[in-house]
Write a structure and sequence with these properties.
This protein is 59% helix and 8% strand. It is of the alpha/beta class. A hairpin with a 2-residue loop joins strand 9 and strand 10. The longest helix is centred in the C-terminal third of the chain and has 39 residues. The protein is elongated, with a radius of gyration of 26 Å.
């Protein structure tokens, strides 16, 4: 078992164990909802369009060409100036995922992500010579695993970002490594826009550290590293400029569809809301677990640097990472569009996680020399993060079980048309989106118009899905909690005027489906239906 003492096999084994635990608990077939489902729709659309267009495949488009009743509205749907409808997520993710989707379907994607996650952890642990404790903390005490294995762009953004700063800092004497570093960091931007902020900060911080150490504009350290910084910066800029040009041509905006779908949150957010987001993402808020609240050991590592004996143990490489991360975390939290509804480790700050683990490992080597309460504190905080992480996976498991029950029940629903009362409920349909005719009717006027369109085929059986809990009459928009914002009485009146109720079923304790036919169809003789 001597080989297990080396970082790569240990990291690979631990991360594969976590991936297996995660996939068994959640079941890849029923993991698609919300963000992951819309990522899947984008990849499937690109595949169906033979990689010539990212326009969304919408089974109901013949009835709803303007996507007025698209099941996933709001930020998930972007209308381009030329009239095309696309999703908000990175096109690079769709290109990478489409071949996997072709080979093994949606179930294979999280499995592939689990394997790639394990390889990433093994490589990262080996290159940075992480201790077994740091590897354990990374895999079981941080939220990198759950964010990477779920189907999203985080894994690729983290991987290219890690490759970039690893090549730059761990092979700092090789000019070719600086070029690779710039290319990898540039590729990370194609998956996570915040990578541009981190990588630009990294180059600026390195140059600033050298200036401070030299005490003059062009001293010994600057002369030594300037060529590598310029090579890295040039390669990085080429990929970022390529990103801007491609998205300007494809989407009419150099920042791409994500910016277009979140313009209000990114541009119009007030200073008070930004400060609130900063606190929630970095530290936490009611029902929100921020970056340092999830991993207090990383906070303790940064706090330790206030004392010179600890700071002197860092070395230049770790110092550059430390300063970059300490600037990146609050800056990114301040710039984000929102602070998320429920947070178990904020996704917008995930690029600060791997550098944070490196700093923790450096400080841990100093901490272990101390005796008494300090070791107990480290152990307690370590266990806290592990319990929180495993607890979050179990929360996801319970949610996925509900999704499985709902989706299995929906598969058995016999109807030609499926109409959801709100987008929150529609996001639970999973892969049924691809083979069922589904719509969302938010308000009474919406269901009235939609029924008018569907009446062209009055023989169809319609299934209406809604929540049985009492709902509020509010026009709060798509950010309203649980989407409870429509006039139920007016909604029901329209249904009773135009349709005949045939049957009703409960799919979940709080979700029911009612089956209708058009009145004219119901009155007609069976031979004429």
């Amino acid at each position: 078992m001597q080989w297990l003492r080396r970082p790569f096999p240990l990291g690979l084994l631990l991360s594969l164990s976590f991936a297996l635990f995660f996939l068994i608990q959640l079941n890849p077939r029923y993991m698609y909802t919300g963000d992951s489902l819309n990522n899947l729709i984008q990849a499937y659309s690109l595949l169906e369009n033979r990689f010539t267009s990212e326009e969304l495949v919408y089974p109901g488009r013949s009835i709803d060409p303007d996507f007025s009743y698209y099941p996933h509205p709001g930020v998930y749907l972007v209308k381009l100036p030329d009239g095309r409808f696309i999703g908000q997520y990175p096109i690079a993710l769709s290109f990478l995922s489409a071949p996997i989707l072709f080979l093994g379907g949606p179930t294979l994607l999280p499995v592939i992500h689990g394997i790639l996650f394990a390889l990433l952890v093994g490589y990262f642990a080996q290159r940075w010579k992480l201790s077994p404790v740091a590897i354990l903390f990374l895999v079981f005490g941080s939220y990198i695993g759950s964010r990477s294995i779920e189907y999203s762009s985080y894994l690729y953004g983290i991987a290219f970002h890690a490759l970039g700063f690893t090549y730059l800092l761990r092979r700092s004497k090789q000019k070719i490594a600086a070029i690779y570093a710039g290319l990898f960091m540039g590729l990370a931007v194609w998956f996570r826009l915040e990578a541009a902020i981190f990588c630009a900060l990294l180059l600026v911080v390195w140059a600033s550290v050298n200036l401070l150490r030299d005490g003059q504009l062009y001293g010994r350290h600057t002369k030594r590293d300037l060529t590598r910084l310029l090579l890295c910066g040039t390669a990085f800029s080429v990929l970022v400029i390529g990103y801007f040009l491609v998205h300007q041509m494809l989407h009419g905006h150099f920042l791409g569809a994500y910016f277009l779908s979140n313009t209000a949150g990114l541009v119009e957010k007030t200073l008070t809301l930004r400060l609130r987001s900063l606190l929630a993402l970095v530290f936490g808020a009611p029902y929100k677990v921020g970056f340092f609240a999830f991993m207090p050991l990383i906070l303790l590592a940064f706090v330790s640097l206030a004392w010179k004996p600890y700071r002197s143990r860092l070395g230049q490489t770790a110092l550059i990472l430390t300063v970059t991360t300490l600037v990146f975390l609050p800056l990114m939290a301040f710039l984000t569009a929102d602070d998320q509804t429920v947070v178990f480790g904020p996704r917008f700050l995930i690029l600060g996680l791997l550098p944070g683990v490196i700093i923790f490992d450096r400080m841990r080597r100093v901490w272990v020399r101390r005796k008494g309460p300090f070791r107990w504190l480290m152990m307690i905080l370590f266990i806290f993060s592990v319990v929180l992480n495993i607890g979050w996976v179990l929360v996801l498991r319970n949610a996925t079980r509900q999704l499985r029950v709902f989706q299995q029940a929906m598969e058995k629903v016999q109807a030609e048309v499926h109409v959801f009362q709100n987008p929150f409920l529609a996001s639970h349909m999973g892969t049924a989106y691809f083979h069922k005719l589904t719509f969302v009717a938010l308000y009474p006027r919406d269901v009235d118009d939609l029924l008018g369109r569907l009446s062209q085929k009055p023989e169809q059986r319609l299934a209406f899905y809604d929540l049985t809990v009492e709902q509020k009459n509010s026009q709060a928009g798509l950010d309203a909690p649980n989407w409870y914002y429509f006039d139920r009485s007016a909604y029901e009146e329209i249904l009773s005027q135009k349709l005949v109720l045939e049957d009703e079923q409960m799919l979940l304790p709080e979700v029911r489906v009612r089956f209708y036919r058009f009145k004219d169809s119901a009155r007609a003789p069976k031979g004429h239906q």
